[in-house]
Specification:
GO biological process, one term: methylation
Organism: Streptomyces goshikiensis
Keywords: Methyltransferase, Transferase
Order of helices and strands: HHHEHEHEEHEHHEE
Shape: globular
CATH architecture: 3-Layer(aba) Sandwich
Strand order of the largest sheet: 3-2-1-4-5-7-6
Pfam families: Methyltransf_11
Distance between the termini: 51 Å
Largest sheet: 7 strands, mixed
CATH class: Alpha Beta
InterPro entries: Methyltransf_11, SAM-dependent_MTases_sf
Number of helices: 8
Helix content: 25-40%
CATH topology: Rossmann fold
Number of strands: 7
Structural class: alpha/beta
Mean pLDDT: 85
Low-confidence stretches: 1-6, 14-22, 223-231
Amino acid sequence: MPGPLGDPAGAAPLHRFAALAAARAEHTATRAFFTPRAGAWEERFAYQAPAYEAAVARMRLRPGQTVLDLGCGSGRALPALRAGVGAGGTVLGVDLTPAMLTAAARAGRRGPAGLLVADCGRLPLPAGAVHGIFAAGLLDHLPQPRTALTEWARVCAPGAELLLFHPSGRAERAARHGRPVSPDDPLAEPNLRPALDATGWRLAEYEDAVTHFVARARRRVRASRCGGSPGG
């Protein structure tokens, strides 16, 4: 008779434990990196606020909607997101590092938005509750980008907007770190487009310029129960 590790039923709990342990280690490393930097983060990158505002303007937000800023850091996008959804909308800044949300509150961003400590790959939100997601400098740093995209699609309503942003282009960032642009970069269009397609999104806009990176996608309309195909 096979032991508990020799059959699928026994292996499943071990796999879940390994995944949990890996996620916890990733969380610890992320917090260890950002916590000592959080206090100076806003002052260091405040000059990027106009670029964040311009990026948010590409999203088709409407008054009364619910929008997330995932990996919000000190919250540079939060005022622009609030302007997009108006006083009747909901804006939530999500970050894994409590010290970053403290920096956001110190910068006055608790007024425009709620602030939540959470893993962006396991959002404590119901399905279909969100109309827009803004994520700056996040997706390419996640260990499983497709898993994150799937989770973001879960919490989004059909037609919701996803905006992936960075205030510099991929080539500029690679040069800054002394390396060439990797063909395995999750943000390269040949990699990003199929990843979005496979996780419930449709890429609507892709722009990798010297001064910025923007990829805008829309949550696909789910197939009807009569067997219709998903809409764009």
